[in-house]
Task: structure prediction
Amino acid sequence: MNYLEQIFARLEREKASPVVGEVRDGAVAWAKGEELLRMVSQARGFVRARGLRVGDRCALYGSNSIQWIAADLALMAEGIIVVPIDPRQVSSEIAVVLRDSTPAMILCADAGFAANVNATVTDGKSHLALFKDIFEGQAGAWSPPVTRSGSDPATIVYTSGTSGEQKGVIITTGNITFMLGCTNARLDLLMGLRTEPDRVFQYAPFSFGAARILLLTSLSRNSQLVLSTDLTKLSDELKLAEPNYFVNVPLFLERVRRRIEESIAKRGGFAAKVFSGARRAYLGEGGVIDRVYLKLANSIIFPTIRKGVGANLKALICGSAPLAVETQKFFMMLGILVLQVYGLTETTAICTMDDPRHVEPGFVGPTIPGIEMKIGEGGEILVRGPNVFKGYWQKPEATAKALEGSWFHTGDQGEMNSNGNWRITGRLKNLLILNSGHNIAPEPLEEKLASLLPEAQQVMLMGNQRSFLAALVTIPSADGDHSARVQAALNAMNANQPHYKQIRGFAVLRQSFTAEDGLLTTMGKLKRDAIAARFGSEIESAYRQRPA
Result:
C-alpha cells in the first residue's frame, strides 16, 4: 500500500473517531474519520468537474486547517501534483512560485488572496477556487485513489537555494511512502505499546516539508492531530491539545527556555538557588550541595515546570535549524526528552532521527534505516536512498549538479561519531539559517541594502542560529553618525520583505574590508568567517538591538 491508501484505510477504520481538530474559541473542534473522508470526496468531485487531470499541477494556499488537509488529500488521490504555498510569503515570492509551476488551478482559503493573484499574477486567466465553494457540494460515491507508481510526482515543494532563487523540489509517491514508514517506526519507539491514540500538536505551516510529513504520518497512524489557529496563543492552544509530541524549530524551544529562566529568576530566593545548583550538578560542574539541589529540583520544581510545558508530553521533536546543545540539555534536565531530526526538502524532510532510547545532546541521531549518508569533498554530507527527491522542477542543470555521482549533495558539513550519531558542523556555502528554520541567501539582500546606501563600501549579513538578521555596514567616512541613514534604508527595505528576511539590527564600521587585512579575497569577495571573528564585539552589539 502506498501512503494514500494507508491513510484512507485508517480513516475508514476509524470513521467514528476524532482524527483532526482545530482550536476555535477556546476549544478543539474535531473532525471524525467519516467527516474527513466526506470532505475529501467533495473536493475530488470539485476538481474532477473542472477538468483537472492526472499529472496536472494545482497550487494550494491557506493557513493550516481541516479544509486544507482535505483538499491536499483529494488532489493527490486524483493524481494531481500539489504545489503548497507558504501563506507567510510576500506576493512577489508567491508570484515566482506560481509562474514557475504553472498550476492548472489555484485553491485558496482567502478571497482577498485569490483576487490579488488573479489581478497581478495570472492576468485574470487562471482558474481559482475558494475552499468555501469546494466544500459546499455533494460528496459523491467513494472511489480508490488513482493508481500511481512510486516514481510519480506527488507534490512540488519550493525552497530557496544559496542564490536566493526558489526551486521546486519534486517529491514522489515513493518518497513519501518510504518516509512515513520511517517516522511511524520512530514514533512507535517513543510511544511504546498503547491502545489510545497519540496526541499531536501542529503549528508549523503545511508548506514546510517536515510539517507535511508530520501531518501525513499523523493521518496514517492512530493519533489525534490538533492544529494551531493563532500563533499568538500557542501557550493556551498547547494546554487544550495536551500533546504527547510535536515538531518545533529551535527558536520556539529557546523562547520557552528563556521564559522558564526568567520566571525562576523573578521568583528569586530559595527556588532560584535550588534551580541554579541543580543546573550545575546536571552539567557535572557542581559540588555535593548542588547534587542535593538537583534531587530537590527533581522533586519539587521540575515536575511543576514539566506540567506547564505539557502534562502529557513525551518528547519535543526539533528540526529545520541547528539547536543549541545548551538548550537541549536544559530541557532534558527538566525531564523533557528533546529529539532532533536532520534533513532537507530534497530528502523528503528527513535523513536522521534521534532514537528515543539513545539520545546524545548536540547530535541529530543516526541515519534512518534504508538511507545512506557519507562525507564527500570538503566535509560535505552526501545522501542516497528512497527519500531523495526526483529533481528540481524544470531545472535539469540544477538537478544534475545536486545529484552528481548518484548522491544528493546537501551543502551541509557534518561528522558521525562511533555510536553512529551525526552532528551537523556547518554550511559549505553562505546560506544563513535562522533558528526559526528559515533559509536565507544573504547576497541579494546585501546587494539591495548596498544600493540604498551608496556611501557604504561593503555590507555583510549575519544570522546563523540567530532569531533575526543583522548587518555589518562599512562606511569609512569620518564625518557624522550614519546610523540614522542606515536605519532609514533598512526601514524602506524591510517594508517589502517577509518577516524572516527583515534586517533588524546593524553595526556601522568606520573601516573597509580589504584583501590586505585578510577580510577580502583577491577577487574582492567577503571572507565571512574572518570578518565575523575580527568584529565579534560589533556583531554582538548589533544583536543587542531589540528586533522591530
